[in-house]
Amino acid sequence: MASAPTLTLSSRDLERLEQLLDSPAMATNPAAIALAAELGRANVIEPENMPADVVTMNSRVTCVDDVGGETHRLTLVYPRDADVDRHRVSVLAPVGTALLGLSVGQSIDWNAPGGRSLRLRVTAIDYQPEAAGDRAL
């Protein structure tokens, strides 16, 4: 597996994610623990300074599996908004945690359900709230 790429996070996303992780139910949740570790290594910047090529919360991204060649279009969302049928991936899902803060061109190694290894490379950000000026998201 490749080393973890640098990740960038907005202060707004950090605050909201820390609130999510602050519940007692999350204290022993392996997905929450993994997300907290990612948050701890992030480069945090103000939303208005967020580069448009970084995956933030509520971003719609296009990824390519460099192993199998498949293209995936996903929206990174909070757990309450997750919906597999609509390709809305929770930040608490392993792939969601891994995508958060990546830039276009960066890739992550991820084990899909069933144990299949993937290397997902972010090829485009089709929508990012910060770049669109959507402060509520």
TrEMBL record:
One GO BP: regulation of DNA-templated transcription elongation
GO molecular function, one term: RNA polymerase binding
One Pfam family of this chain: Rnk_N
Residue ranges occupied by any Regulator of nucleoside diphosphate kinase N-terminal domain in the UniProt entry: 5-44
SUPFAM superfamilies: FKBP-like
Superkingdom in the source lineage: Bacteria
Segments forming domain Transcription elongation factor GreA/GreB C-terminal: 51-127
PANTHER family, alphabetized: REGULATOR OF NUCLEOSIDE DIPHOSPHATE KINASE, TRANSCRIPTION ELONGATION FACTOR GREA
Stated name of the protein: Nucleoside diphosphate kinase regulator
Native organism taxonomy: Bacteria, Pseudomonadati, Pseudomonadota, Gammaproteobacteria, Lysobacterales
